[in-house]
Amino acid sequence: MLESKRALFVQNLHANIDSSGKERILAVLQSAQETGLDTASILLELGMDTETLVTALLRSVSDPVLSASSATSDLLLSELAKIDDLTTDTKTIYEAQNIRNMIFTLVSDIRVILIKLAEKLTTLRTENSVDEHKSVARECIDIYAPIAGRLGISWLKNELEDLSLKYLNRETYQQIKELVAAKRGERSSFLEYVQKIVQAESEAAGITVEVESRAKHFYSVYMKMRKRGISAQKIYDLSAIRVICGSVENCYTLLGIMHRLWKPVNGCLKDYIARPKPNGYQSLHTSVIINRETESENENEEGKTLEIQIRTEEMHQMAEHGVASHWLYKKGSSKDLVEAKDIGIVNEMMNWKQNQQSSGDFSPLWLEGIKAEILRKSIYVFTPQGKVLKLPQGATPIDFAYHVHTAVGERCNGAKANGVIIPLSAPLKNTQVIEILTSPSAQPHLKWLELAKSSKARSKIRAWLDKERETPSVEKASESKKKSSEPAILAASSLSGKEQLQAQANKVVHPLTAVLHVQVQQEKNLMVRFARCCNPITGDRIIGYVSRGRGIIIHREDCSSIVCNPEFENRLIEVQWDSAKSALVKRFKIEAKPSLNLISEIKTAIQKRQGNLIEENFEESDGNKLTGFFTIQVVKAEDLKSLIRSIRMIPGILAIQAVDGN
Question: Domains in the chain and their CATH numbers?
């Protein structure tokens, strides 16, 4: 069976494949599995080139065939792997549309998409269990059949839909199949009658035509049943005819002849020649009511409804093969066709290609044109879970955060793109995996309105800022202080003496990030943390360490802990103090006798000198002595001397000295 398939495949290799191309194909053909051969056969039917066929075959080969591969086939294989990794489980039409568009952003060569479509069709054609096919069928209905339609490959789209319906709704599929089979004889006689009349009338008008009849594909009948809310037995227009002629003028002449012969159905005339579909499809569509002269008296008086499509040969090839028709046919532009600027993007690219390049070549301008049409002013990015999100072009991590959830947006403190920390101001790019870093202390501010591009993010930020203005900050601070102090008072009531002092002292009063600001490689909006091992402050020589999931950790250059970290050299990043924002902060070492009011007296002394206590920590060094470290913010350097003097005057203070990190 496999050998006969291989022989047939070689026999059908078309004229566009040169001798060197055939040698490459034959080199991999013997190693290819049946699925790869079936996929390549579909692509051969589309008239695809050597690189496409070789890539399809290589996908089913366990060991690489070096004599067949090339830089192009390697690129195609690499981009196919990207689509393989794409999570295509969708719950809404919106999600499915996002994934379809993401597929276009992931590839730089449209042949990748054509190979993927052929692979999906091969899977559905293979006889396996229904359960195995259901997930693929759902994927094809939501993702791949619409893509085939977007690219104008109608027969491939139709077959993907029909086979998907077979696995997703077998009962309905069987009903439609039986109905079409039962009416085959009657339909054949009727269509033969219509075809003879069309041929005769066309010849009388001096127009050479080719008339084809076809049955509607099952999925279109199914969708018509759903739309009208009727059973399969009540669908009467199960067939149509297609009239192919030589020019656009003849198309409109034939339309007049059809309407003279039979009564047209109101509202069913569609002129896709003057107004092509976005995928480049062109044709005239009309529906007419046909009464046969030989019909008996008990026949339906209104006759039978029949859809008629009228198009040129060029339009027919575009309708059947879409973008793939470029590889199948090499025809110059015709004066009978409408101008390229008036038709869809795919057809426009096809005309450009026909006029400028040989039929065997491929230009990335094709795909760029399609991407520009499909994506317009949007980008598509991934969440860490693989979900695809659509954002406006130029969107930043702030837009992403608010798209995920308002609470995530309001606590956004940093972001990663593909595992690398980026500023909140950085524009996101297609196909990036975005991760938002949050912090309970983070909150929106006015600058975010400038950074956000989406209306959702801007409205949420504006609402939060408006709410903040309604509640005075002093009142909020008072409420916050009251809430935080209540549990501390209750906890301290059960302690006494030195234990109460320890409970009050061993805490962070204000986070260092509130008053200390650094620039990371000239960027100011990154999430940073200050290392607790060395507690860097303004004036210290500092370095940054890119951590996993906790932002950039700021250390002093002489910090002993970084010497023990083997990854530090690879994760080192340049940082410097942002002198315009960072306050003057100093650290002090204090030795004192235990006293219940010691902490409050130190705070009072600091506040009198317009200072701000950032953090404090006391530890018992020996029997009757405590050693503590205080980090203090002051307005001016001149205030330091008077502040130290005030602390020294507090009863119980034994010594105080500045701890300099330089």
Answer: 2-168 (1.10.3210.10), 177-368 (3.30.460.10), 379-470 (3.10.20.30), 495-505+583-662 (3.30.70.260), 510-582 (no CATH)
The token pair that represents 603 in the structure block: 């705070």
Question: pLDDT value at position 362?
Answer: 43
Place of tokens 């590839």: 107
Match 């096809």 to its residue by tokens.
Answer: 350
Q: What is the mean pLDDT of each run of 10 residues along the chain (662 residues)?
A: 81 77 86 90 87 90 75 88 77 68 75 91 81 83 84 86 90 84 77 91 94 83 78 69 94 94 90 84 91 52 79 87 53 31 38 39 49 62 84 90 91 88 88 87 84 87 73 40 42 44 43 62 69 76 79 83 74 75 72 79 80 70 73 74 85 81 45
Tokens of 65: 């065939």
Strand partners, 286: 308
Q: Are 635 and 610 in contact (CB under 8 A)?
A: yes
CB 605 within 8 A of CB 653: no
Rounded CA separation 635/266 (Å): 82
The 10s digit of each residue's pLDDT in 107-119 is: 778 888 899 999 9
d(CA 331, CA 550): 60
- What is the predicted pLDDT for the residue at 11? 81
pLDDT for res 103 = 78
Reduced to 3 states (helix: H, G, I; strand: E, B; else coil), residue 424 is coil
Instruction: Calculate the CA dihedral of residues 148, 151, 152, 153 and round it to 10 degrees.
Output: -40
Estimate to the nearest angstrom the gap between the alpha carbon of 32 and the chain centroid: 33
For strands 284-290 and 575-577, give the pairing.
unpaired
Query: Of 312, 255, 260, nearest to 285 (Cα)?
Result: 255
Place of tokens 């039986």: 178
C-alpha–C-alpha distance, residues 120 and 83, integer Å = 12
**Are the C-beta atoms of 40 and 33 separated by less than 8 Å?**
no
Two tokens, residue 400: 């992403």
What is the model's pLDDT at position 39?
Answer: 93
CB 545 within 8 A of CB 552: yes
Residues facing 613 on adjacent strands: 632
Phi/psi of residue 271, nearest 5 degrees: -105, 90
CA distances from 220 to 157, 160, 235, 371 (A): 11, 12, 11, 28
pLDDT at 376: 55
Q: Is 521 exposed, middle or buried (0-12, 13-18, 19+ CB in 10 A)?
A: exposed
Distance CA 87, CA 77 (A): 18
pLDDT at residue number 344: 39
Find the distance separating the first CA and the last CA of the chain, reported in whole Å.
Answer: 80
Residue with tokens 């950032």: 614
Contacts of 365 (CB under 8 A, 6+ apart): 349, 352
